[in-house]
Amino acid sequence: MMRFARSEMRLIAGRRRNQAGLAVLAAVPILLAIAVRLTESNPRGGGPPSFIDDIVGNGVFVAFAALTLQLTLFLPLAISMVSGDAIAGEAHTGTLRYLLTVPAGRSRVLAVKYFGLVFGAFVAVFTVAVVGALVGMAIFGTGSLTTLSGTQISLGAGLLRLFVSTVYVALGMSSLAALGLFVSTLTTQPIAATVATMVLTAAMWVLDAVPQLGWLHPWLLVDHWAAFADLMRDPADWGGVWRGLSVDLGYAVVCLLAAWARFDGKDITT
Amino acid sequence: MPPSVEADPAPDAPASAVSGYAVETRGLTKIFGSQRAVDGIDLRVPSGGVYGFLGPNGSGKTTTIRMLLGLVRPTSGDHDILGHPMPEELTAALHRVGSLIEGPAFHPHLSGRANLRRLDAADARSDARTAASRIDAALDRVGLTPAANKRFGAYSLGMKQRLAIAAALLAPRDLLVLDEPTNGLDPQGTREVRHLVSELASDGISVLVSSHLLAEIQQICTHIGVMSAGKLVAQGSIDDLRATRTARLHLGTPDPARAAAVLAKLPVSQLVSGDETVSGIPSEDLAPEDLVRALVAADVPVRRFTVDRPSLEDLYVSLTGEGFEVRS
Ligand SMILES: Nc1ncnc2c1ncn2[C@@H]1O[C@H](COP(=O)(O)OP(=O)(O)OP(=O)(O)O)[C@@H](O)[C@H]1O
Ligand SMILES: [Mg+2]
């Protein structure tokens, strides 16, 4: 199993388009930091915490801001791309039939594919956070952090909260990857699976933006993704994060079971 | 390559030794929509034999092979592979089977060797320590060593086909299922594949090899099954099939009437006399030399004399029909 999993990670990491996607993800915090540096004197905007206003005070906030910004589009897009390809891509190139006759085992293939996607999600999200923190600290310097509550916490405590936030976002993306994996078992066209997953994500964002549908919001996968911001209050507010993790887990379990049910009996004719 | 010596637990022990079949299907059927792609076939691939699985385009060979390997779920019917009931013992069975299904398929951006490494990594039972040497041996066996590190996407059709065969040979096998293994190969490549298959068979490995060209595989097959429009229309050892073909006598003579009279008494049936020719079907116990002796003894002038059986190719065509169009 370990060999197969390593092979899967190598396959994902070796794809040119995945590498390009990762480069885009890494470029956003860099551009963000440069943009803030160039416009430092501009007045601050209102709205929910985006962390952008805090960057000048401490470069670590570039990481928080980049995570918040990329949560809506670039990260889900990257996850949709990789997860849509998981089964449909192998079916499309025909390599799936050879994997299954090795025999790799259908459940095993699915498990390794999902493991690979979780690996991909963590690499993607950590790339954003690490590049953001490093570039931010290089440009804006660092020190103690001002929380959203206005108090100060030490740099160590701040980095710890950044780490927890990054893991939280990565878990949210892993849950989306389970959805993408399920969609990927439905078709032999990887592009179709990617687009479908992206459309589902976008649809959830749209629903999440309609206040009249407030009753639905707690059930939307995307609704809690930004809840890590509450960890930057003093004291840290874990409520949203726990609720988010339970929704993530719910989506992941349902989607993986659906993927398994679909894939286990599927005729492989490509 | 020796047959698999993998120590299977007792329940996995090859029952094929009992039934004598490496592949046995009972009423295997696959219906796609309204089409019976494979229609109740009873395939019998004898252990240690080379089974030529023939049929024109669209006759259901690949669909059958996909069902055998558990890729497609049969609509009805069941089958055993090497004595393992399928799909219950699919994993145990497939570990002993190397396969090539409907042409090669690999990741285009990986090299041939990296592709084999990935397949080997996916195999729960393969030993990581021997992977490199097994991969090299498989590449060597199909003559692909010089191109091993080239991207698969840059391979020629024949190189791709060879890589697929190498993949089937990555581990010791008891059965090889090869769907049109010579597709896209040059004449040398075709010969080499034939040679390779014979070699593997002489090691005791059972082989199921599909083709739509009888001529391409008839030298290496011990058994033949012929598919036509989803049905298995003929099956048996190649010698039995040869024997079922009736020999036909062709005689050239200026006196066809007298020749016919002599032949009729031997007996030779279905005599047809033409202008200076006579043809007919000699009874089975008559050797050609008996016919010549009888004719000469009766003073029939013989100018030309042949007794021949239709080729397997003719038989195959008569079984599958001459039509060029594929079945819809
Ligand atoms: N996934 C599918 N959906 C619907 N029909 C299919 C599918 N796969 C195969 N068929 C049909 O089943 C029939 C048998 O196809 P199959 O691929 O088994 O033929 P074959 O004997 O392998 O032909 P060839 O020599 O061309 O490879 C064909 O008529 C084909 O159209
Ligand atoms: Mg075919």
List the helices and strands and how they pair.
The complex is a heterodimer of chains A (270) and B (328).
Chain A: H1 2-14, H2 16-38, H3 61-70, H4 74-93, H5 95-101, H6 106-140, E1 145-146, E2 152-153, H7 155-184, H8 190-208, H9 239-264
Antiparallel strand pairs in A: 1-2
Helix pairs in contact in A: 1-6, 2-3, 2-4, 2-6, 3-6, 4-6, 4-7, 4-8, 6-7, 7-8, 7-9
Chain B: H1 16-19, E1 21-32, E2 35-41, E3 44-46, E4 50-54, H2 61-68, E5 76-81, E6 84-86, H3 90-94, E7 97-100, H4 112-122, H5 128-141, H6 157-168, E8 175-179, H7 187-202, E9 206-211, H8 214-217, E10 223-228, E11 231-237, H9 238-244, E12 248-252, H10 256-264, E13 268-273, E14 277-282, H11 288-297, E15 304-308, H12 312-320
Parallel strand pairs in B: 4-9, 4-10, 7-8, 8-9
Antiparallel strand pairs in B: 1-2, 1-3, 1-5, 5-6, 10-11, 12-14, 12-15, 13-14
The structure holds adenosine-5'-triphosphate and magnesium ion.
Series of secondary-structure elements of chain A, N-terminal to C-terminal: HHHHHHEEHHH
Helix percent of chain A reads: 55-70%
CATH superfamily of the largest domain in chain B, called what? P-loop containing nucleotide triphosphate hydrolases
Q: Which pair of chains forms the biggest interface, and how many residues does each contribute?
A: A-B, 28 and 31 residues
> In the CATH hierarchy, what is the class of the largest domain in chain B?
Alpha Beta
Evaluate the radius of gyration of chain B: 24 Å
Spatial gap, N to C terminus of chain B: 41 Å
Quickly count the helices of chain B.
Answer: 12
Name the overall outline of chain B.
elongated
Beta-strand portion of chain B reads 25-35%
Regions with little confidence, pLDDT below 50 for 5+ residues of chain A: none
Ions, cofactors and other ligands present here are: adenosine-5'-triphosphate, magnesium ion
Characterize the overall form of chain A: globular
What assembly state would you assign to the polypeptide chains in this entry? heterodimer
The residue-averaged pLDDT of chain B reads 85
Largest sheet of chain A: 2 strands, antiparallel
Strand content of chain A: under 5%
